[in-house]
Amino acid sequence: MVLPFCHTKSSASILVLLCTLCALASTSYAFSHHRHVPSSVRAVQPTSLSSPKWRPAIKVSSLRTSLSSTSDDADSSKTVQPETINDLQNIGTLVGAQTLLVPISIFVANMLRLPNRGLGSGFILNSAATIQGIQWTIPLFVIAGIMRVIEPYSPALQDVTKATQRSVLAVMGSRRRPVFALLVSILLGAVAGWGEEWLFRGVFQTSMSRLFGEGIALGVSGVVFGLLHAVTPVYALLAGAASLFFGYLYNTYGNLAVPMVCHAVYDIGALMWAHWSVTALTKKEQDEIMAGGVSVAPILSSETTNQNDDE
Fold first, then answer.
1. How far is Cα 196 from Cα 105, in angstroms, rounded to an integer?
2. Which residues are CB-contacts of 114 (< 8 A; sequence separation ≥ 6)?
3. pLDDT tens for each residue of 122-136
4. What pLDDT is recorded for position 263?
5. Which residues are CB-contacts of 266 (< 8 A; sequence separation ≥ 6)?
């Protein structure tokens, strides 16, 4: 009795899969493999001759002390502007790629006649859904903290951290800018949480559930999501586990807003932590990360921060 149903929906399910693969492959590549080197890293000279803020201009220490504050400010204004433009271009690329998931979701949902354009009949973004989504980030952050503790003993986890730091360096630059980083993290986290959950949970998982049931749909969506985030094998495994978690929230609450909020808030926290930790590294360590080097990011400490400032 199931065969006629599967036959009438086979072409639609294939279309959903293809659209999902193409959309997420493009956005996953744009974020996870973003190799644009920030101008502060690309144009800077060797560490011993660079300024504390890694400006492209070479400044010998004896000359640096003799320069007036006026000329230093002028030099800063000339070098910060290209870095800011480069950062904005990188941010625009990522936001644009993630935003494309929304019209793709709507298009596929309309073709499959999914309720509420793929958001589901139970979708409502209110204070209750927001609180629930934020609460469910707690186990995610606990797991992230545990992995941070065991990371020094696991090269695979170190590779995951470096992949994230590489993207953050490309987008937010090598200088610590808390306000700028927070705004960018909120923007990227919001578009990722909204777009990916809409497409993957609202459209892909829902359509797969109609064909094969919730359990198979949850597992398949987790596998595909992990494969499309396969920056490293462990990165793919963690992404797949996160997909299972978000899918579980959707099945439990029947409200896509809950996993959307959870996904977005976690991404914001993860991006901020990555920015904070990577800007505590030395210039040499940052260059090795951008070049795909094998250096291990040290645990954030005041000693590391002071060393970075002294250079």
1. 9
2. 120, 202, 203, 206, 207
3. 999 999 999 999 999
4. 97
5. 137, 140, 141, 189
Q: What is the DSSP string of the chain?
A: -HHHHHHHHHHHHHHHHHHHHHHHHHHHHHHHT--PPPHHHHS---GGGS-TT--SS---HHHHHHS-HHHHHHHHHHHHHHHHHHHHHHHHHHHHHHHTHHHHHHHHHHHHT-GGGGT-TT---SHHHHHHHHHTHHHHHHHHHHHHHHGGG-HHHHHHHHHHHHHHHHHH-SS--HHHHHHHHHHHHHHHHHHHIIIIIIIIIHHHHHHH-HHHHHHHHHHHHHHHT-SSHHHHHHHHHHHHHHHHHHHHHS-THHHHHHHHHHHHHHHHHHHHHHTTS-HHHHHHHHTT--PPPPPP-HHHHHHHHH-
pLDDT in tens, 1-57: 333 334 445 545 554 554 555 454 445 444 444 444 444 444 333 333 333 333 343
Residue 294: CB partners within 8 Å, gap ≥ 6?
Answer: 288
pTM: 0.73
CB atoms within 10 A of CB 102: 16
Q: How far apart are CA 121 and CA 113, in angstroms?
A: 12
Q: Cβ neighbours of residue 78 under 8 Å, at least 6 residues apart?
A: none
Transcribe 256-302 into DSSP letters: THHHHHHHHHHHHHHHHHHHHHHTTS-HHHHHHHHTT--PPPPPP-H
pLDDT tens-place string over residues 69-115: 444 444 444 444 556 677 777 788 878 888 899 999 999 999 999 99
